[in-house]
Design goal:
Blueprint lengths: L31 H9 L3 E9 L4 E6 L3 E6 L7 E7 L2 E5 L2 H7 L9 E3 L7 E8 L12 E4 L7 H8 L7 H9 L13 E9 L5 E4 L8 E6 L3 E7 L26 E8 L30
Antiparallel strand pairs: 1-13, 2-12, 3-11, 3-13, 4-5, 4-9, 4-12, 6-7, 7-11, 8-9, 9-10
Protein backbone atom coordinates (compact mmCIF):
# COMPACT_ATOMS: atom_id res chain seq x y z
CA UNK A 1 0.00 0.00 0.00
CA UNK A 2 1.25 3.48 -0.84
CA UNK A 3 2.26 5.51 2.17
CA UNK A 4 2.54 9.28 2.38
CA UNK A 5 6.03 10.56 3.11
CA UNK A 6 6.25 13.48 5.52
CA UNK A 7 8.80 16.01 4.28
CA UNK A 8 11.05 17.78 6.76
CA UNK A 9 13.49 20.38 5.36
CA UNK A 10 16.31 19.41 7.77
CA UNK A 11 17.25 16.45 9.93
CA UNK A 12 18.25 16.89 13.62
CA UNK A 13 21.89 17.36 12.60
CA UNK A 14 20.97 20.24 10.29
CA UNK A 15 21.52 18.37 7.04
CA UNK A 16 19.09 19.41 4.31
CA UNK A 17 16.72 16.58 3.42
CA UNK A 18 15.96 15.59 -0.17
CA UNK A 19 12.64 17.02 -1.35
CA UNK A 20 11.63 13.81 -3.13
CA UNK A 21 11.58 10.81 -0.81
CA UNK A 22 10.01 7.46 -1.56
CA UNK A 23 8.35 4.91 0.65
CA UNK A 24 10.05 1.50 0.85
CA UNK A 25 8.93 -0.74 -1.98
CA UNK A 26 7.85 2.08 -4.30
CA UNK A 27 9.07 2.07 -7.90
CA UNK A 28 11.58 4.79 -6.91
CA UNK A 29 13.20 2.27 -4.60
CA UNK A 30 15.01 -0.29 -6.77
CA UNK A 31 15.03 -3.73 -5.14
CA UNK A 32 18.72 -4.18 -4.42
CA UNK A 33 18.44 -7.94 -4.15
CA UNK A 34 17.10 -8.18 -7.71
CA UNK A 35 19.54 -5.71 -9.27
CA UNK A 36 22.56 -7.02 -7.36
CA UNK A 37 21.75 -10.45 -8.78
CA UNK A 38 21.51 -9.01 -12.30
CA UNK A 39 24.81 -7.17 -11.83
CA UNK A 40 26.65 -10.21 -10.48
CA UNK A 41 25.48 -12.91 -12.89
CA UNK A 42 27.97 -14.37 -15.34
CA UNK A 43 25.13 -16.13 -17.18
CA UNK A 44 25.27 -13.65 -20.05
CA UNK A 45 25.31 -14.02 -23.80
CA UNK A 46 26.77 -11.17 -25.84
CA UNK A 47 24.22 -10.35 -28.56
CA UNK A 48 25.58 -7.03 -29.82
CA UNK A 49 28.80 -5.05 -29.54
CA UNK A 50 30.33 -2.16 -31.42
CA UNK A 51 32.65 0.82 -31.13
CA UNK A 52 31.43 4.41 -31.42
CA UNK A 53 34.27 6.34 -33.13
CA UNK A 54 35.36 9.77 -31.96
CA UNK A 55 33.03 12.71 -32.60
CA UNK A 56 30.23 10.50 -33.88
CA UNK A 57 27.02 8.83 -32.71
CA UNK A 58 25.31 5.46 -32.84
CA UNK A 59 21.80 4.26 -31.97
CA UNK A 60 20.89 0.70 -30.98
CA UNK A 61 18.02 -1.37 -29.56
CA UNK A 62 17.98 -3.16 -26.20
CA UNK A 63 15.19 -5.66 -25.42
CA UNK A 64 13.58 -5.53 -21.99
CA UNK A 65 15.39 -7.78 -19.52
CA UNK A 66 18.79 -7.30 -21.18
CA UNK A 67 21.92 -5.56 -19.90
CA UNK A 68 23.91 -2.85 -21.70
CA UNK A 69 27.47 -1.85 -20.85
CA UNK A 70 29.20 1.34 -22.08
CA UNK A 71 32.99 1.09 -21.91
CA UNK A 72 36.13 3.17 -22.32
CA UNK A 73 38.29 0.85 -24.46
CA UNK A 74 41.14 3.33 -24.99
CA UNK A 75 40.87 5.62 -21.97
CA UNK A 76 38.88 8.59 -20.67
CA UNK A 77 36.04 9.87 -22.87
CA UNK A 78 32.69 11.50 -22.14
CA UNK A 79 29.52 10.12 -23.76
CA UNK A 80 26.07 11.72 -24.11
CA UNK A 81 23.23 9.21 -23.77
CA UNK A 82 19.59 9.45 -24.93
CA UNK A 83 16.91 6.78 -24.32
CA UNK A 84 13.44 6.22 -25.78
CA UNK A 85 10.73 3.59 -25.47
CA UNK A 86 11.43 1.55 -28.62
CA UNK A 87 7.72 1.33 -29.50
CA UNK A 88 6.71 4.86 -28.53
CA UNK A 89 9.41 7.54 -28.87
CA UNK A 90 7.17 10.09 -27.14
CA UNK A 91 8.16 8.23 -23.99
CA UNK A 92 11.76 9.31 -23.52
CA UNK A 93 14.32 9.86 -20.79
CA UNK A 94 13.54 12.75 -18.43
CA UNK A 95 16.81 14.06 -17.02
CA UNK A 96 15.41 16.69 -14.66
CA UNK A 97 12.93 14.37 -12.93
CA UNK A 98 15.63 11.71 -12.60
CA UNK A 99 17.82 14.36 -10.99
CA UNK A 100 15.07 15.17 -8.48
CA UNK A 101 14.22 11.56 -7.68
CA UNK A 102 17.79 10.33 -7.28
CA UNK A 103 20.69 12.78 -7.58
CA UNK A 104 22.42 15.21 -9.91
CA UNK A 105 25.01 12.49 -10.56
CA UNK A 106 23.79 8.91 -10.79
CA UNK A 107 25.26 5.51 -10.05
CA UNK A 108 24.36 1.91 -9.22
CA UNK A 109 20.69 1.32 -8.23
CA UNK A 110 19.58 4.71 -9.55
CA UNK A 111 16.97 4.60 -12.31
CA UNK A 112 16.60 6.71 -15.46
CA UNK A 113 12.96 7.84 -15.66
CA UNK A 114 10.68 8.60 -18.58
CA UNK A 115 8.75 11.81 -19.19
CA UNK A 116 5.08 12.55 -18.50
CA UNK A 117 2.52 11.12 -18.77
CA UNK A 118 4.41 7.81 -18.59
CA UNK A 119 6.75 8.33 -15.60
CA UNK A 120 8.38 4.96 -15.13
CA UNK A 121 11.99 3.72 -15.10
CA UNK A 122 13.28 3.02 -18.59
CA UNK A 123 16.50 1.51 -17.23
CA UNK A 124 18.12 0.80 -13.87
CA UNK A 125 21.87 1.26 -13.35
CA UNK A 126 23.44 -2.07 -12.35
CA UNK A 127 27.17 -1.41 -12.63
CA UNK A 128 29.61 1.48 -12.35
CA UNK A 129 33.36 0.95 -12.18
CA UNK A 130 33.93 4.59 -11.21
CA UNK A 131 32.22 4.31 -7.81
CA UNK A 132 35.49 4.89 -5.96
CA UNK A 133 36.20 7.95 -8.11
CA UNK A 134 32.75 9.55 -7.95
CA UNK A 135 33.92 12.73 -6.20
CA UNK A 136 37.08 14.83 -6.19
CA UNK A 137 38.38 17.50 -3.82
CA UNK A 138 36.53 20.30 -5.67
CA UNK A 139 33.20 18.47 -5.20
CA UNK A 140 32.95 17.39 -8.81
CA UNK A 141 31.03 14.14 -9.34
CA UNK A 142 30.65 11.66 -12.21
CA UNK A 143 27.74 10.69 -14.56
CA UNK A 144 26.23 14.13 -14.84
CA UNK A 145 22.58 15.22 -14.98
CA UNK A 146 23.26 18.90 -14.26
CA UNK A 147 24.28 19.82 -17.78
CA UNK A 148 23.10 18.75 -21.19
CA UNK A 149 24.54 17.99 -24.63
CA UNK A 150 26.80 20.40 -26.50
CA UNK A 151 25.19 21.73 -29.67
CA UNK A 152 26.07 23.75 -32.78
CA UNK A 153 23.66 26.56 -31.95
CA UNK A 154 25.35 27.58 -28.70
CA UNK A 155 28.75 27.00 -30.31
CA UNK A 156 27.88 29.50 -33.05
CA UNK A 157 26.47 31.93 -30.50
CA UNK A 158 29.46 31.89 -28.16
CA UNK A 159 32.37 31.35 -30.54
CA UNK A 160 31.09 32.69 -33.86
CA UNK A 161 32.12 29.42 -35.53
CA UNK A 162 30.11 26.60 -37.08
CA UNK A 163 30.85 22.99 -36.05
CA UNK A 164 28.89 19.93 -37.16
CA UNK A 165 29.99 17.25 -34.70
CA UNK A 166 28.62 18.36 -31.35
CA UNK A 167 26.71 15.77 -29.34
CA UNK A 168 23.34 17.17 -30.42
CA UNK A 169 24.31 16.75 -34.07
CA UNK A 170 25.87 13.33 -33.49
CA UNK A 171 22.69 12.11 -31.80
CA UNK A 172 20.54 13.61 -34.56
CA UNK A 173 22.42 11.72 -37.26
CA UNK A 174 22.42 8.51 -35.19
CA UNK A 175 18.65 8.30 -34.78
CA UNK A 176 17.62 9.20 -38.33
CA UNK A 177 17.82 5.57 -39.55
CA UNK A 178 15.29 4.73 -36.82
CA UNK A 179 12.72 7.21 -38.11
CA UNK A 180 13.45 9.92 -35.54
CA UNK A 181 14.52 13.52 -36.09
CA UNK A 182 16.39 16.36 -34.40
CA UNK A 183 13.22 17.17 -32.43
CA UNK A 184 13.43 13.78 -30.72
CA UNK A 185 16.87 14.48 -29.23
CA UNK A 186 16.48 15.37 -25.55
CA UNK A 187 18.47 16.20 -22.43
CA UNK A 188 21.14 13.60 -21.84
CA UNK A 189 22.93 11.63 -19.20
CA UNK A 190 26.59 12.66 -19.52
CA UNK A 191 28.25 9.30 -18.93
CA UNK A 192 31.79 9.43 -17.45
CA UNK A 193 31.57 13.25 -17.15
CA UNK A 194 32.67 14.96 -13.92
CA UNK A 195 30.80 18.18 -13.11
CA UNK A 196 29.49 20.30 -10.27
CA UNK A 197 28.40 23.77 -9.18
CA UNK A 198 30.94 26.30 -7.95
CA UNK A 199 30.59 28.75 -5.06
CA UNK A 200 28.59 31.07 -7.33
CA UNK A 201 26.22 28.24 -8.30
CA UNK A 202 27.73 28.09 -11.79
CA UNK A 203 28.18 24.87 -13.72
CA UNK A 204 31.73 23.55 -14.07
CA UNK A 205 33.33 20.56 -15.80
CA UNK A 206 36.47 18.66 -14.88
CA UNK A 207 38.59 16.14 -16.81
CA UNK A 208 37.00 12.72 -17.11
CA UNK A 209 38.32 10.39 -14.36
CA UNK A 210 37.73 7.16 -16.32
CA UNK A 211 40.61 4.86 -17.19
CA UNK A 212 40.98 2.35 -20.01
CA UNK A 213 38.52 -0.49 -19.39
CA UNK A 214 36.06 1.37 -17.16
CA UNK A 215 32.34 0.78 -17.63
CA UNK A 216 28.82 2.03 -16.92
CA UNK A 217 26.11 -0.65 -17.06
CA UNK A 218 22.31 -0.60 -17.01
CA UNK A 219 19.37 -3.00 -17.22
CA UNK A 220 16.54 -2.34 -19.70
CA UNK A 221 13.18 -2.28 -17.91
CA UNK A 222 11.28 -1.97 -21.21
CA UNK A 223 12.31 -2.32 -24.86
CA UNK A 224 14.41 0.78 -25.48
CA UNK A 225 16.22 2.61 -28.25
CA UNK A 226 19.44 4.22 -27.05
CA UNK A 227 21.74 6.68 -28.77
CA UNK A 228 25.24 7.62 -27.68
CA UNK A 229 27.51 10.45 -28.82
CA UNK A 230 31.26 10.48 -28.26
CA UNK A 231 31.62 14.08 -27.12
CA UNK A 232 33.85 16.26 -29.33
CA UNK A 233 35.36 17.56 -26.09
CA UNK A 234 36.93 14.14 -25.55
CA UNK A 235 37.97 13.79 -21.91
CA UNK A 236 37.32 17.54 -21.32
CA UNK A 237 40.90 18.20 -20.21
CA UNK A 238 41.23 20.78 -23.03
CA UNK A 239 37.64 22.04 -23.16
CA UNK A 240 36.87 24.93 -25.48
CA UNK A 241 34.55 25.70 -28.40
CA UNK A 242 35.03 23.21 -31.21
CA UNK A 243 36.33 24.12 -34.66
CA UNK A 244 36.00 22.50 -38.08
CA UNK A 245 39.56 23.41 -39.03
CA UNK A 246 43.04 22.50 -37.76
CA UNK A 247 44.23 23.71 -34.39
CA UNK A 248 41.54 22.20 -32.16
CA UNK A 249 43.36 21.03 -28.98
CA UNK A 250 40.38 18.92 -27.91
CA UNK A 251 40.84 16.55 -30.84
CA UNK A 252 43.90 14.98 -29.19
CA UNK A 253 41.80 14.11 -26.12
CA UNK A 254 39.07 12.29 -28.07
CA UNK A 255 38.71 8.51 -27.80
CA UNK A 256 36.07 5.98 -28.87
CA UNK A 257 33.50 4.37 -26.59
CA UNK A 258 32.39 0.76 -26.63
CA UNK A 259 28.87 -0.67 -26.32
CA UNK A 260 27.97 -4.25 -25.37
CA UNK A 261 24.47 -5.75 -25.03
CA UNK A 262 23.93 -8.98 -23.11
CA UNK A 263 21.06 -11.43 -22.80
CA UNK A 264 20.73 -13.02 -19.35
CA UNK A 265 20.67 -16.76 -20.01
CA UNK A 266 19.79 -17.93 -16.49
CA UNK A 267 16.04 -17.29 -16.17
CA UNK A 268 16.20 -17.60 -12.37
CA UNK A 269 18.12 -14.31 -12.24
CA UNK A 270 14.96 -12.49 -13.35
CA UNK A 271 12.47 -14.55 -11.33
CA UNK A 272 11.47 -11.60 -9.12
CA UNK A 273 11.76 -8.87 -11.76
CA UNK A 274 8.63 -7.35 -13.25
CA UNK A 275 8.46 -4.74 -16.02
CA UNK A 276 7.45 -1.33 -14.62
CA UNK A 277 3.89 -0.10 -14.97
CA UNK A 278 2.93 3.25 -16.42
CA UNK A 279 2.09 6.04 -13.97
CA UNK A 280 -1.29 5.39 -12.39
CA UNK A 281 -2.64 8.94 -12.63
CA UNK A 282 -5.54 8.72 -15.10
CA UNK A 283 -7.61 11.84 -14.44
CA UNK A 284 -8.01 14.78 -16.81
CA UNK A 285 -6.12 17.49 -14.86
CA UNK A 286 -9.36 18.87 -13.46
CA UNK A 287 -11.05 19.17 -16.85
CA UNK A 288 -14.61 18.07 -17.44
CA UNK A 289 -15.48 16.96 -20.94
CA UNK A 290 -18.56 18.71 -22.40
CA UNK A 291 -21.65 16.66 -23.09
CA UNK A 292 -24.06 17.37 -25.92
CA UNK A 293 -27.50 18.32 -24.65
CA UNK A 294 -30.19 18.28 -27.34
Amino acid sequence: MNQAVEHKPQDPAGKKIAAYEAFKGSSFDADREIYSKISATTARQLIDSFIVPIRSGRAWKIPAGHVCRITTPEGPQVGDLNIWNLHNPREKFWASRTRQLHAAHVTTFDRLWSCLPYLRPLVTITGDSLVGRMRDSSQGRVHDLLGTRCDPYINQMLSGESFDYHCHSNLTRAIMPHGLTESDVHDVLNVFQMTGLNEDDEYFMLPCPADKGDFFEFFAEVDVLCALSTCPGGDLSQWGWAKNHDGDPMLETCRPLGVEVYKITDSSVLDKWKPPELAKYASLHGLRMPEFRG
